[in-house]
Amino acid sequence: MKRKPITQRLCVFLTALVLYSACSPSIEDIIEQLGHGGKAGARAKRELLLAKDRSVDPLLKALEEPRFAVARPEIVDVLVSLLMRVEDPRILPTLKHHLRSDPNATVRARIIQKLSLHKHLQAVGAFFAALSDGDGEVRFQALSALGLLTKDLDAVQRHTLRSAARRLLKDEHSQVQLEARALVGVYVKQWVDEARQQTLKGDVALAESLLQQALAYSPNSKLANYRLGRLYFDNGQREQGLEQLKKHNMLVEISPLATMPKIDGRIDDRAWEEATTIDTIYRMSSAAYTVYPSKIRTKVYVGYRQDALYVAVYCHEAHPESLIVSGNTSSYPRDDQVEVAIDGNFDHRTFGHFIINSTGSVLTAWYGERAHFDLSWTHKVESAAFVGPDFWSVESQIYFDERDLPRPRPGDVWGFNVMRSFRGWEHHQWVIDFRDGTGSADKFGFLLFK
Question: What whole-number distance in Å separates Cα of residue 152 and Cα of residue 124?
Answer without folding.
Answer: 10
